[in-house]
Write a structure and sequence with these properties.
Elements: E1 16-20, E2 27-28, E3 31-32, H1 36-50, E4 54-58, E5 67-68, E6 72-73, H2 76-83, H3 87-107, H4 111-120, E7 125-127, H5 134-142, E8 148-150, H6 158-162, H7 165-172, E9 177-180, H8 191-198, E10 204-207, H9 209-223, E11 229-233, H10 242-251, E12 254-257, H11 262-268, E13 272-273, H12 283-296, E14 299-301, E15 305-309, E16 323-326, E17 329-330, E18 335-339, H13 341-351, E19 356-360, H14 373-383, E20 390-393, H15 396-404, E21 413-414, H16 418-425, H17 431-434
Parallel strand pairs: 1-4, 1-9, 4-8, 7-8, 9-10, 11-12, 11-19, 12-14, 13-17, 19-20, 20-21
Antiparallel strand pairs: 2-3, 5-6, 15-16, 15-18
Helix pairs in contact: 2-3, 7-8, 10-12, 11-12, 13-14
Bound molecules: adenosine monophosphate.
Amino acid sequence: MNKMTVRDLGDIKGKRVLVRCDFNVPMKDGVITDENRIQGALPTIQYLMEKGAKITLCSHMGKPHNVLDPVVKLNKKEQAKIDALPEGEREAAKKAALEKAAGDLKKLSLKPVADRLNELLGGKVTFAHDVIGPDAKAKVAACKDGECVLLENLRFHEGETKKEENFCKALASYCEIYVNDAFGTAHRSHASTAAIVEMGLVKTAVCGFLIEKELTVMADALEHPQHPFIAILGGAKVADKLNVISNLLEKCDTLFIGGGMAYTFIKAKGGKVGTSLVDDEKLSYCKDMLAKAEKLGKHIILPNDTVAAYAFPDPIDAPIETKVVDTMNIPDDMMGLDIGPATRQMFANMLDNAKTVIWNGPMGVFENPTLAKGTIAVAQALADLQGKATTIIGGGDSAAAAQQLGFADKMTHISTGGGASLELFEGKVLPGIACLNDKK
Ligand code: AMP
């Protein structure tokens, strides 16, 4: 890893530091339901506090439909709907829309995160009710050495995702040093994730411990893997993982493909897939990948047997009757929804010898207990490798599955960023990391 980290900053007592965190935590009725991301951010924040920096923390939360600029403003679509109404109805409709928007925005406030951080950090965190407004400016200015201010949700401003110059300048005015520790958004080029550095508004830009760990473990596994190196890909669509499949084939020895994506490969091999999820436009891509694997002397392993049903479960966790069928011969009226027992066993046997494993994407419709067995079996096989191999889960659904099963501490690394880790697996450079200062 050739990027500077907070450890390389030297004396930062009294210096103003802006830390981009990923506090996009799941919440229900204003209560945080999983605080992993908050816990993940603590080492960097505590380090900066101990060094006596004046810290401004920032993050996005969800995808707000409207903005606070500085009062609630409706988005173009909602405004257009109101403009299309007869004149007499517009005012009342606008009032109702603004009230609804204010309520929706409140649900995406970072205030509950500030409260929890304040508990975890000994009462040293204050919350600013805006991002570049008067409250934030006053609180950042009043911040003492070793204390923190958490700004309100960055995406309450269009300037965040649109990288507006005024917004970038206002954010940059809070700091002399920028720290990116939000791996989950490092693949995005937004104001707070890259633009304030790319525009030259902050000269000193380093990563925090969380990004350092993500990069060290994942880049090392990809660039210098111990062999056998097995990659496991699942999830719904081939189209979402085109470059991942191609890049991983060059790095790994064996690629397992499960989940909905497997059936496009099966069809490309001449199998009968019934009503399974298939992307006909990607059949030739799958044929190319099968040929590429052969040329490189690599193995693409597809499921032998499939757990199939007559229809997709609705609701997704509804009881469902299933049948185990040959993956190359799925009946015309059935769809494949999970890898079958023979495939689970085959994957587990092959994984037993692996020295490096990376995994992204569930093996089936794991939201349904009857169709979760393939995903559980893979998680179990990785957990069984504890101490024998490097095991990495690239965030998203597979990470959630391993966590729910209580296997988290049996893995070498579970990434905090599904999208970002997929882009690393694709071999892409992430803008939130590229912009940081190189080690001298
Ligand atoms: P992704 O976001 O691409 O990782 O896909 C995750 C989704 O893929 C989950 O919601 C699964 O329910 C879904 N999925 C996995 N296997 C299948 C399958 N065989 N058919 C349809 N959907 C699937």
